[in-house]
Design goal:
The complex is a heterodimer of chains A (760) and B (157). Chain A has 760 residues and is an alpha+beta fold. Chain A has 3 domains: 11-121 and 183-275, Alpha-Beta Complex (Aldehyde Oxidoreductase, domain 3); 282-443 and 597-755, Aldehyde Oxidoreductase, domain 4, CATH 3.30.365; 453-590, Aldehyde oxidase/xanthine dehydrogenase, molybdopterin binding domain (Aldehyde Oxidoreductase, domain 4, 2-Layer Sandwich), CATH 3.30.365.10. Helices cover 27% and strands 24% of the residues of chain A. Chain A contains 19 helices and 31 strands. The N and C termini of chain A lie far apart (55 Å). Chain B is of the alpha+beta class and 157 residues long. Chain B folds into 2 domains: 2-78, Beta-grasp domain (Ubiquitin-like (UB roll)), CATH 3.10.20; 83-156, DNA polymerase, domain 1 (Orthogonal Bundle), CATH 1.10.150.120. Chain B contains 6 helices and 5 strands. Chain B has a 5-stranded mixed sheet, with helices on both faces. In chain B, helix 3 (85-93) packs antiparallel against helix 6. The model of chain B has no long low-confidence stretch (mean pLDDT 95). The chains are: A alpha+beta (760), B alpha+beta (157). Chains A and B meet through helix 1 and helix 17 of A and helix 2, helix 3, helix 4, helix 5 and helix 6 of B.
Chain lengths: 760, 157
């Protein structure tokens, strides 16, 4: 089964409409929760009066900020959020109070009975404003230093990059800007909380991180961890947008306990947009230098990212914008400074390709410019600078398997690059870019001595194998991966394999579906558990049959010895293996090796393995309207080994779609802190008509530490997509695009500016 | 509350509906037919697509009372009748499903389209599903599945 295109084990349920997502669970007699949200971007809360709402006969429980004042956050070092606003509100849409009532309508009506008195505070609208010193009342969080609204500064420098750029023969610099974008998953946030006996609570929620949600609920409700059970049912897309513990999840748990009734909430699409946690709006300046033959000599970048009102994953994002420029090219003189600021907007967080998408666009654009300056083919320029396999970057990221060259070769050949780049008629162009990404963060978010993933595999009398993992299948197919592994290790058909995942009561801890970690980490843990299970079965048979356990082969639902003296059906094998002991469970763990240097910030970007990729885009630009049509995308991705090629292709195709959206269409628009396009009509994700033909190549570099050689495929493929499109636009109409999204008006303006000679 | 009688997946059903209830509300909350998804309630994602008298509609924008004495077919009904079995099989086998949230709406839309277009081009399929947003697949494998299903459908008819 490994390496074979395998339909998802839950696809049949999904295609027939029987798969149950959070909002599909019927919980009899459940109350409906509605949230009162702040109409102000920044305001002091003078008074919250819920007495009228509480008197309403249909209202069963009300919650306000002072009920749950304990701060939480996905990163323990920046827990700056509360379940509801306590003393002040920090963005339009922040939850101020919540009611649980007998119906959706009654809950919504009860919100009208809540009176909140606000005193408006000066709002921080822009990153520029946030960087400068202001009055104390203009500070969104008191912990920002020097009366600014800077949340986090990160700076690293290796081998004096500034001097490298001064002495480099050829340097290109650019000022880039990137609008914020959001995940656009199709299933809105939804949560059900059910009070249980003995002070326990069960929370069914659309989350990528059941483990961290369990921790956050226990912390804020001040109850022991073991009293909180989190279940992630079928989930309708995440992309990082469900990878934080959220206020509404904590509030629902609280209201369930307070009312003694099950409660449920399901966000409107507008609420999803107001919650955001999408990619940070970013401005950055970057300089890149090379020698005469195109060898990169130095890189420096200065980045400002707009975090919105709270931290989320922002400390990580701050580092990733810099450290993830250390590949796929050798850049020994390298440095960055990133500042993440607070503004009075919905918070930014982690989104597919977290932290590295925007800075990747910048560096790949500058590389393209230098290549053109030097008359070097952009593919050749990149080839000259690739990191080899088995090396350390200057910041001591450990590169093991590396298929970047094969990726570039593949897209170059398939797109007929050498015969077409620079030779197409005006308006038509080809562009190339490469990328790389972590395959799981080597460092856990919460420091402890626990493994990053534990998987249990159970054999029972009925001949079934049950794999238990805390990992969240969010549509990427991790449950199917576990089933494939079990099938492979034990030689069984998929229908004997059951997967129980993402239920904190039943499944051992996996840290969650973020940082592209599941295949590598949970996959390794699962393989170990299954190998141990197989060894146990073999041992039982060897003892009974008097053969060597190592001689036994598991295939085609049979266990056979090499000499043919033992030949058992699976059911016979199970009977022997479970004799006198019954069902048994084996456990496998994954713990990342110790990696990295010992300087401050050395932990950022560390991963046990890195994926690589290359992309070529072909575009058609209408020089009268500025409209860009992406004609075709060639994407090659080195995922180590494609355990399920169907899933890997799907991840690459989805990444192309999302990269295309950010490149050309998507933008979170704000006016005075208010989201202007909080719906799918005005926030345009690419439709089937906008998404071009995608040619996918899977490169298998056989990672030495990945399960069966596998590494990540879900995020890495997005990085090269945006700059490939930008560079293709240059090939088509000779303008460089420094601001995303590359809308028709921006392209026309760039073309006009070029004609009038305002830009060179 | 108003009494509403309609045919759902071939069976005549009656319930009391609020005047402002949508067809989506009635299907999910009234009849427990949760295969129809609540994605945006603004008519812009297509996840709630069902057939109303055999034509695809966005159930989130369709007032329930407008469906009086009419026939509604959901993903559950199409599955039970077997009319979409080939399309469903192709979506499963070709990997046209990731998170699956858009899938029921996609199946209903494609079914309505393929019924009248036995030999569609890829562009026509892309056009047909342009109102159904999918954030996972880049549409590639959905289009491929629909192409193959239409070919097999064409062979059968």
């Amino acid at each position: 089964m490994i390496g074979k295109a395998t339909p998802y084990i839950d696809a049949q349920a999904k295609v027939t409409g029987t798969a149950r997502y959070t909002d599909d669970f019927v919980e009899s007699n459940a109350l409906h929760v509605a949230f009162m949200r702040s109409p102000f971007a920044h305001a002091r809360i003078l008074r919250v009066d819920v007495s009228a709402a509480e008197r309403s006969p249909l209202v069963k429980a009300v919650a306000v900020g002072s009920d749950l004042p304990t701060p939480f956050g996905i990163l323990p070092i920046s827990a700056d959020e509360t379940a509801m606003a306590v003393d002040k509100v920090r963005f339009i849409g922040e939850i101020v109070a919540a009611v649980a009532a007998e119906s959706r309508e009654a809950a919504a009506a009860a919100l009208q009975l809540i009176n909140v008195d606000y005193e408006e505070l000066p709002a921080v609208r822009s990153p520029e404003q946030a960087l400068s010193k202001g009055a104390p009342e203009g500070q969104i969080h008191a912990h920002s230093r020097d009366l600014t609204n800077i949340h986090k500064r990160a700076e690293l420098s290796f081998n004096d990059p500034q001097e490298a750029l001064r002495s480099a023969k050829h340097v290109r610099s650019g000022e880039f800007s990137f609008a914020g974008v959001t995940h656009g998953f199709t299933e809105p946030h939804a949560t059900i909380a059910i009070p249980e006996a003995n002070g326990c609570v069960t929370v069914i929620s659309a989350t990528q991180v059941p483990h961290y949600l369990q921790r956050a609920i226990a912390k804020v409700l001040a109850i022991p961890l073991h009293r909180v059970r989190v279940i992630k049912p079928t989930l309708g897309g995440g992309f990082g947008g469900k990878s934080d513990p959220f206020p509404h999840e904590i509030i629902c748990a609280f209201l369930a306990q307070k009312s003694g009734r099950a409660v449920r909430c399901n966000f409107s699409r507008e609420e999803v947009f107001l919650t955001n946690h999408g990619r940070h709006p970013t401005t950055l300046s970057m300089s890149l230098g090379c020698d005469d033959v195109g060898k990169i000599e130095g890189l420096w970048t200065d980045v400002v990212i707009d975090g919105g009102a709270f931290a989320s994953f922002g400390v990580v994002t701050t580092y990733y914008n810099g450290v993830l420029l250390q590949g796929p090219y050798r850049i020994d003189r390298f440095g960055f400074r990133t500042r993440r600021v607070y503004t009075n907007k919905p918070q930014s967080g982690a989104m597919r390709g977290h932290g590295a998408v925007n800075s990747r666009y910048a560096v790949e654009t500058l590389i393209d410019m230098l290549a053109h300056d030097r008359g070097i083919d952009p593919c050749d320029f990149r080839l000259r600078n690739f990191l080899p396999k088995n090396t350390l970057t200057v910041g001591q990221l450990r590169i093991t398997s590396n298929g970047v060259q094969a990726c570039l070769d593949a897209v170059r050949k398939k797109s007929d690059w050498d015969n077409r780049h620079g030779k197409l008629p005006f308006g038509r162009g080809l562009g190339v870019a490469c990328g790389f990404y972590i395959s799981g963060s080597a460092l856990p978010i919460i420091w402890n001595r626990q493994p990053q993933s534990v998987v249990h595999a159970k054999l029972d009398f009925d001949g079934s194998i049950v794999v238990y993992s805390g990992a969240s299948d969010i549509g990427q197919g991790s449950d199917t991966m576990f089933a494939q592994m079990a099938s492979n290790v034990l030689g069984l058909s998929l229908d004997r394999i059951k997967v129980v995942s993402a239920d904190t009561k039943l499944t051992p801890v996996d840290l969650g579906s973020y940082s592209s970690r599941v295949t590598f980490m949970a996959g390794n843990a699962a393989k170990k558990a299954l190998d141990k299970l197989r060894a146990e079965v073999a041992l039982g048979i060897a003892q009974e049959k008097g053969c060597m356990a190592e001689e036994l082969e598991f295939a085609d639902e049979r266990v056979r010895s090499k000499d043919g003296s033992v030949d058992l059906s699976w059911d016979e094998a199970v009977e022997i293996a479970t004799a006198m002991r019954g069902a048994f469970v084996e456990s496998g763990v994954y713990i990342s090796p110790k990696l990295g240097g010992d300087f401050k910030g050395s932990g950022a970007g560390l991963s046990p393995s890195y994926s690589f990729g290359a992309c070529i885009a072909e575009v058609d630009v209408d020089s009268l309207t500025g409209q860009v049509r992406v004609v075709k995308i060639w994407s090659a991705h080195d995922c180590g080994r494609a355990l399920n090629p169907l899933a890997v292709e799907g991840q690459i195709e989805g990444s192309v779609h999302m990269g295309l959206g950010q490149a050309l269409y998507e933008e979170m628009k704000y006016k005075d802190g208010r989201v202007l396009n909080a719906n799918f009509c005005d926030y345009q994700i690419p439709t089937s008509l906008d998404t071009p033909e995608i040619d996918v190549t899977i490169i298998e570099s056989e990672d030495p530490e990945g399960p069966y050689g596998a590494k990540e495929a879900g995020e890495g493929p997005i990085h090269p997509v945006l700059p490939a499109i930008g560079n293709a636009i240059y090939d088509a109409v000779c303008v460089r695009m420094f601001d995303l999204p590359m809308t028709p008006d921006r392209i026309l303006r760039a073309m006009r500016d070029k004609e009038s000679g305002a830009h060179s | 509350m108003q009494q509403l009688t309609l045919t759902v997946n071939g069976t005549k059903r009656t319930l009391l509906a609020k005047p402002d209830a949508t067809l989506l509300d009635v299907l999910r909350d009234g009849f427990g037919l949760c295969g129809t998804k609540r994605g945006c309630e603004q008519g812009s994602c297509g996840a709630c697509t069902v057939l109303l008298d055999d034509e695809p509609v966005l159930s989130c924008l369709t007032p329930a009372l407008r469906c009086l004495d009419r026939c509604v077919t959901t993903i559950e009904g199409l599955t039970e009748s077997g009319e979409v079995a080939e399309l469903q099989r192709q979506l499963v086998e070709r990997g046209g499903i990731q998170c699956g949230f858009c899938t029921p709406g996609m199946v209903v839309t494609l079914h309505a389209f393929l019924r009248h277009n036995l030999v569609p081009t890829e562009d026509e399929i892309r056009d047909a599903i342009s109102g159904n947003l999918c954030r996972c697949t880049g549409y590639a494998k959905i289009v491929k599945a629909a192409m193959i299903a239409s070919g097999l459908q064409g062979e059968r008819s």
